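Worked Example 4.2. Consider the chain below.
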Amino acid sequence: MKKHFVLILVSAVIVLVSGCASVAEQYKPNAAYLQSRTANILGFNPDSVQISNIHEDDGITYYLADTPKGRYACHKPSGVMAVVGIGVSTDTVSPMCQKQ
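Applying the procedure from the previous section yields the following structure tokens:
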């Protein structure tokens, strides 16, 4: 009986962890999303903002945004941080950018 309980518990943990990973992957922002959101917060037309150097570290997506007024270093919660830290909707948190 004890072995069955341990097996069920281990199986449940594996399913939970793999489920969280796939949900987190779904909420990683892509370049088009970052372009739209960044243009919105910086006050530019999305077509005039170019996104590059997108990478994730510890649940934060970092990227560069080139605009008509210069380059910005930006970051936004994503993946596991977005799902666990702020809820499932990443649209509620705008990117934060600093002019370079």
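The chain has three helices and four strands. Strands lie at 50-57, 60-67, 70-77, 96-99. Compare this with Example 4.1 before moving on.
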